[in-house]
Amino acid sequence: MSVNREKLGALLKWYRQEIKDDLIAAIIVNRDGLIMDSISGSGDKSVEEDIVGGLSALVEPVLTRITQEFSSGSFGTGTFDTDAYRLIFCEAGPEAIFVTVLDSLAMIDPIFPLAYLTAEKISRIFDGRTVSPVIPKITSLKSDPHIERKIDTLQKIKINASEYAFKLVLGGDGGVGKTSMVHRFVEGKFATDYKETIGVSIMKKECDFEDLKTSVRFVLWDLAGQNQFKRVRKNYLGNAEAGLLVYDVTRKETYNNMKAWYEEMRVITPDIKLILIGNKIDLEDKKQVTREDGEKLAKELDISYIETSAKTGDNINDAFRTLALDLIKKFFITEEVL
Ligand code: GTP
Question: What's the whole-model pTM score?
């Protein structure tokens, strides 16, 4: 079923107009926290992607928590405060959640009915039902007992400040073992039947660091390595905080292509934390790329390097944990110092 994007866009614009200065962003996400549509408070298209991308790392762990706590699958509405923002979550039908991100000083109560009403409209748009994208004036809404009852049931969602989610992307030629690495890391399994990734597939996995009293949740975006997907990949690489650059130690050309992959990722996300991986080390007698070659390239690119086997599981966890630690250093430590 195709969603009426135009109507959705018009609705979000109405919503922004009604809330005015307090709105940082309004985001429609699916149940996995992936963004389906969004609008920023300023209306400046050039900064919109950055704002919304930055917020998705905040929205995702809250959503995961909501889904866990309301295991029936339905939570209605929720609010959540951080130092910088106030968030309102409203279910918008079975597929979508409407997230309003407000300035930390904003008053929730007058905005909530608008958020609720907009979520209802979003749900109708997703259902393909008739609906007007125009939002009526809030004063007439306050007397609506249905909405007042909803406000009573607002849930306060607390989340541990030490939980973070990062978007991680995997780059490297087709068949080097990206999907197998993700499967090994997420499920601890290795499958031998090779099916090439079509476009992108998304999974989640947490790395716990008990000694640091923190955990890092990766939202893993497994991108198709084949050239024909190059154009689509750009859309998925945006706002990634971390990336694995994977080559196959038994195929020299996949190693030779690493620089092109590095450039592709860096151009789109200059700040991305990367790690270089030589995979399939279990195939020792077929090795065409030595450990020294890997180390040399990693030094040139100024990133870490690790050799792995998705088949035996060798070093797979370590690869992800090394990256997680790099991210902890980059994000958490600077946060504490500031
Ligand atoms: P695309 O989806 O086309 O981008 O490929 P990919 O990089 O995700 O590769 P995938 O994980 O699908 O693996 C390709 C083939 O290599 C499969 O047949 C895997 O079973 C095999 N393979 C992956 N990792 C290893 C490994 O560590 N050792 C061995 N021996 N085979 C592996």
Answer: 0.57
